[in-house]
Every structure is written in structure tokens, then in C-alpha cells.
Write the C-alpha cells for this entry.
Amino acid sequence: MNAVWPVELADGDVTLRPIRMRDQRAWREVNQRNRAWLRPWEATVPPAPPGHVPPQRPTYRQMVRHLRSEAQAGRMLPFVIELRGQLAGQLTVAGITWGSMCSAHIGYWVDQSVAGRGVTPTAVALAVDHCFRTVGLHRIEVCIRPENAPSRRVVEKLGFREEGLRPRYLHIDGAWRDHLVYALTVEEVPESLLVRWHRSSRSEPQK
């Protein structure tokens, strides 16, 4: 084990830790219970070109094996989000790129029952601090559908900059959807994103 991965990050009741095979039952229960809530924001696979076999949705075990392989290759940090020891969502740092870019992007989802309680911004802040301070990345992006107001509030509360619209950027909920790009560079977080979040959450209602 090194300081980059696998790693467990925690703040108060919120913990980020690597996804595990034995999380399958809890992950399925949370994910299936939130199907209707998550579907408008969840990535889908476009129709296969003529003559190609349509890809199948991976099983949980296939998903975890893929995430582990990407993590071992240094391209991804696949976390689950826990609230007081119970699985409450997932957060993935993906697309880790080095060289002249040194960047990655973050995606996440949480159980609707814990939304609005500060869990998601705490998890994102933990992940960004780890990426900047330990992994050594320079830039983090979060791409969000314009219609996803709760997710946009998460990154706006953390001080991410809105950089613009990427038309038809990802296949989501059965169609190519526009996404807004939010970003932070390490120079914009001279202290800690978690410290920034705690300071702002003391003066505003948590979302």
C-alpha cells in the first residue's frame, strides 16, 4: 500500500474507501432503491453500429474488477461513500492523465435519503484534497448536466469555476446530453478544499 492507493479518507461521519467485492449486497440495495432518482443522470451506452454486437451492462463483479484494474494502472481512484459506516453512494476519480496535463475528472452519486446533508460536498472535498496534495494532480473537472441543479450546487458551494458548455458530451439516460464543465486547479485551493467547505457550511445551510 502507498499513500495514493488504496487509501481511506474520512471527515466526521463521511468516509471514502475503495470499492470491494463484498460491497455487492449493500451497493445493489442502495443503487436499486434509487433507480428512478439516478436514471436521469446515469451514463448509458449508445446503440451499436450496424454489424456490431450491442455491449452488455457489466455485472457488479465485472465492474469492480474493471475499477480495480484501472486503479492498479494509476488511471482511476474508485471509492464508495460511507455515512456512519453504511454505504451511501459512490465517487470515482477517473481519467487520470499525467504529462503536461496532470488532471482528472470526478463523478459521483449518493442515496437520495442522505442528499442535502453535506455528504456529497464533503466526499468531493476529501477526494480533491487527496488528488492535489497526495496524488500530485494539477486540475480536477466535474461535468454535470445543466438540468442537474443539486449536483451543480455541490460544486458551486466548493468553489469550482463554471467553464462552459460541452454540447452532446456524454450518452446519458438514452441520449447524447449537454454538460457544463466545472473545474479547479491546485493554485485555487491554497489551503484545503475541506477547510473551505467547513467554513462555508457554517454560514450556509448544507446542500
